[in-house]
Amino acid sequence: MERVSISPVQAREMLTQLRADIRQQRQKLKNGVSLEALDAQMKTWETLIQQIQTDMLLEKSARLSMLYDISRSINASLDWRQTVQAVLDAFIQITTAERGMLLLLDANGDPQVEMTQSASYMLFSDADIKFSHSIVRQAIERKSPVLTTNAQLDPRFDGSESVIAYGLRATLCVPLIYKDEVLGAIYLDNRARSNVFTAEDMVSLSTFANNAAAALYNAQEHQKVDQALAERMRELTILQETIRDLNASLHFNRVMERSTAWAVAASGAEAGVIGLVAEEGIRWLTKANNVNPNNLLAMRCISTREPIVEGHYLVLPLLRDTRPIGVLYLVSEERPFKKSKLELVTRVADNIAIAIENARLYEALRQANLTKSEFVTLMAHELRTPMACILGYSDMLKTGMAGALTSQQEEFVDNIAQSINRIIAIVDDLLDISEIEAGRLRLSLRNVDFNSVLDEAMGRFRQDAEKKRLRYTRESWNGLPQAYADPDRLKQILTILLRNAIQYTPEEGAVTVRAWLSADEPDFIRCAVSDTGIGISPENQLRLFTKFFRVVDPSSEEQNGTGLGMTIAKNLVEMHGGRIWLESAPGKGSTFFFTIPIAMPGL
Ligand code: ADP
Predict the structure, then answer these.
(1) 4, 191, 265, 568 - which has most CB atoms within 10 Å?
(2) What are phi and psi of 467, to 5 degrees?
(3) How far apart are CA 3 and CA 385, in angstroms?
(4) Beta bridge partners of 474
């Protein structure tokens, strides 16, 4: 901005000088002076007066354009700090003050310093701020600027330490008023010269102050919205993370521990504890930090089902469908709880209640499952004994121990034995699946010759294969390393796959078994059981490994089965560390693959 050559103060000083000159000339005139000299003097004065006039006009228009520019720049930003800074800078620039501060009224109507601005050698001391406050209060109460052209002589500041110590001369305080409401004030002072701020400046300064107040108000509102948005985002993130974290586990203790941690985080508490409704009253569980909950407060919360916010305590009911299942007890010794936190904490509490209920249900389900599998195990053992007995007697009958059998009797005995064998197989499958589900099935791992186990398993079905005139072969792979497996369970996996392959392949088809080392997984023996049977559709392939699944189709349904074989095979393979998969197409046969780890040298 263009600087003008003469300031109003300078102009005033020049005028005073002019007056003194005139007085001097008048004296000279009395004493007889030449007219030429007087004319020359008059010319100098005229030029001087003209210059003063133009300079003052220029100064005025320059100030106006400066005010306009500053107003525009102040209104350009919605950022709170930037606006405060711009307003304060503007006042200092316009008034050429040495120091300035911007104060805002707090919720109690007390002015609080928001920002100060001064050269480093004139920092505001506490005493200065105290002194300025008395002026600020005056300006705020009057809702108009308070101006001191020379504080040293002003009786209002008589004896004020800071006025004397600082050598304060000029002070000015302009209230910031928006829509008739005082937002705060700008305080400015100067020590070098008195009369820096003049009464004439007040009108334009007040107008400017109103403009600045509007800008501050807008920035403040914007900041409030910004803060509210940021707070809302933070709340949503907490809630989202709480839900995700609580859903990640069904383990009761972990759910309780995480719930307490999240409730503390969401409420800004220092400590918290969850209490669950129990027969004896409230059972206090996991604590985050140290809390000694007040039972009476908790009981009141449970019976009213309403949150209690009492200063440092926040107690919320944990409700499931309006039924209280417990309380969330939060403590904040340092800062009392804000009511605004209640909504978020209530939502967190709702999710905690859901998570607790889910964990409880899961626990109940786990218990029920355990009981069920214990029952199945018991029943299976109970059934096995009489089955073995029936099988034993039918064997004895067949060997002729009780006299020779007619061919029809022999056929009947064969049927009895076959049915008993089927029941035993079903009972064995049920026993296995329930042991697997209860996590009780253990493998006895050792180094095993894979081909021998395979031969044994294939041997069991040789007769069945022959009956169906199947091509039943094993492709050998030279130098197959030993497997690291439980031989009985490995045989069981192969048995399941072979039985199905033979069962679901029409007469004169082929069942081929291959075991080899694949370059993809060199630490595993890969085995494939292929058949030329009925095949499995893609949809059924997806469901094949689920418990009790059997393909609904006449060619499958005419075969006996429980739908447990594939589930058992998958579990056994995975317990060994391998994997199982298949390739199949309806009418084109199936190939089941699985992998079993090879034995490590030295093991
Ligand atoms: P199941 O006792 O019924 O054989 P599984 O779990 O072993 O039970 O097999 C599930 C279903 O998968 C079978 O009922 C059958 O429909 C289908 N399945 C299994 N293996 C084959 C195969 N090799 N070819 C065609 N279908 C098969």
Answers:
(1) 568
(2) -55, -35
(3) 114
(4) 513
114: which 2 tokens?
């928001």
Is the overall model pTM greater than 0.85, yes or no? no
Supply the pLDDT for residue 571.
97
Both tokens of 379, joined, read: 């029943």
Range among 60-74, 231-245, 399-413, 555-569 rated most confident:
399-413
Query: What are φ and ψ of residue 381, in 5° steps?
Result: -65, -40
Over range 8-19, report the average pLDDT: 72
Question: Do strands 323-331 and 313-320 pair parallel, antiparallel, or not at all (unpaired)?
Answer: antiparallel
| Structure confidence by residue, pLDDT tens digits, 445-491 | 999 999 999 999 999 999 999 999 999 999 978 889 999 999 999 99
- Least Cα distance to 335 among 317, 313, 365 occurs for 313
Q: What mean pLDDT, rounded, does the chain reach?
A: 84
Residue 569: pLDDT band (50, 70, 90) is very high
Please, which residues bridge with residue 319 across strands?
Answer: 324
Contacts of residue 65, Cβ cutoff 8 Å, sequence gap at least 6:
1
Task: Report the atom number in ligand 1 closest to the C-alpha of 533.
Answer: 24
Residue nearest to atom 18 of ligand 1 (CA): 500
Which residues make Cβ contacts (< 8 Å) with residue 295, sequence separation at least 6?
A: 281, 282
Quick one: pLDDT at residue 396? 93
pLDDT category at 338 given cuts 50, 70, 90 is confident
Distance CA 573, CA 436 (A): 12
What would the mean pLDDT of 124-144 be, rounded to a whole number? 80
Q: What is each CA distance from 73 to 84, 100, 178, 205, 549, in whole angstroms? A: 12, 19, 18, 16, 75
Indicate whether residue 534 lines ligand 1 (CB < 6 A): yes
Ligand 1 centroid from CA 340, angstroms: 61
pLDDT-wise least confident of 227-236, 319-328, 565-574: 227-236
Strand positions, DSSP E, 332-458 = 446-448
**Structure tokens, 525:** 């023996």
Residue 591 Cβ inside 6 Å of ligand 1? The answer reads no
Best CA proximity match to 322, nearest among 343, 284, 344, 353? 353
Give CA–CA dist 525/481, Å, rounded: 8
Q: What is the CB neighbour count within 10 angstroms for residue 309?
A: 17
Confidence of residue 1 (pLDDT cuts 50, 70, 90): very low
CA distances from 355 to 66, 266, 320, 350, 576 (A): 64, 16, 10, 9, 34
How far is residue 394's CA from residue 391's CA, in Å, rounded to a whole number? 5
* Bridge partner residues of 113 (DSSP): 103
89: tokens are: 């800078």
501 close to ligand 1 (CB < 6 Angstrom): yes
Check if the beta carbon of residue 114 is closer than 8 Å to that of residue 103.
yes
533 lines ligand 1 (CB under 6 A): yes
d(CA 102, CA 114): 6
